[in-house]
Amino acid sequence: MAQVLNLSGKPSKKITLPKVFETSLRLDVIKKVVIAGQSHRIQPQGRDPMAGKRTTAESRGTGLGIARLPRVKGSRYRKAGQAALAPGTVGGRQAHPPKAEKKIKKHINKKERKHALASAIAATANRDTVVTRGHNVGKVSEFPIAVSDKIQTLTRTKQVKKTFMQLGIWPDVLRVKNNKKVRAGKGTGRGRKMKKRVGPLIVVAEDDGISRAARNLPGVNVVTVEQLNTELLAPGTHPGRLTIWSESAIKKVGKMFI
């Protein structure tokens, strides 16, 4: 059983949780599925096999008092004797270029994917798992956090903020807002992006305006049950994301895993 809270954070009724919330936690399967999903977003790339090799350069051998690098043939034109072809020379080939034929996409069995999703859903109902992931749950004691379907109809950001404060979830949004960091990278030039934490996830059966209302809150995501996937529930392969379920979303999820 789970308490269904109204938008003021007070219990309104009780519902029976679907069996999917009793699924055992499988960290290995969740990690495997999330990494496979991330691999599908990587764009394959490669190099021209002849890049840097269109030259007459050959090594002159030893005994000449010069490095044994391949050198352009000839004696009367500008590039004669210039090192070429080898990695590290001007216009030379790459030492280990990316191969276009490399298999990047990882494939997962349907049953594994479904089991990972069920396990990630069950993790949202475990307070210890949510806290271990780093979320600031404040005074929230009831997990999973089930809210009446009125949350789906919120259309203003201030309404969502007020609801989060009543539910005790607002401290986690502040945690995300106050922990922005510059992503580490090579050099100190421009173009570096901000690295931020992941905040609460709102799962609804029907999106009647909640996605527009919550889109400006840092770290907050809104998805329908059909859009739900393992990576949303376990970002970075770590299950236990702080999740708010609408009442109808819980019922809909139960039908998915019959």
Topology:
Elements: E1 2-5, E2 11-15, H1 27-39, E3 58-59, E4 70-71, H2 110-123, H3 127-132, E5 145-147, H4 157-167, H5 170-177, E6 181-182, E7 194-195, E8 201-204, H6 210-214, E9 221-224, H7 230-233, E10 243-246, H8 247-256
Parallel strand pairs: 1-5, 5-10, 8-9, 8-10
Antiparallel strand pairs: 1-2, 3-4, 6-7
Structure description:
The protein has 258 residues and is an alpha/beta fold. It has two domains: 2-36 and 105-181 and 195-256, Ribosomal Protein L4, Chain: A (3-Layer(aba) Sandwich), CATH 3.40.1370; 71-103, no CATH class. The chain has helices at residues 27-39, 110-123, 127-132, 157-167, 170-177, 210-214, 230-233, 247-256; strands spanning 2-5, 11-15, 58-59, 70-71, 145-147, 181-182, 194-195, 201-204, 221-224, 243-246. The strands form three sheets. Strands 2-1-5-10-8-9 form a six-stranded mixed β-sheet. The chain has a two-stranded antiparallel sheet with strand order 3-4. Strands 6-7 form a two-stranded antiparallel ribbon. β8, α6 (210-214) and β9 (221-224) form a beta-alpha-beta unit. α1 (27-39) packs across α2 (110-123). The mean pLDDT is 92.
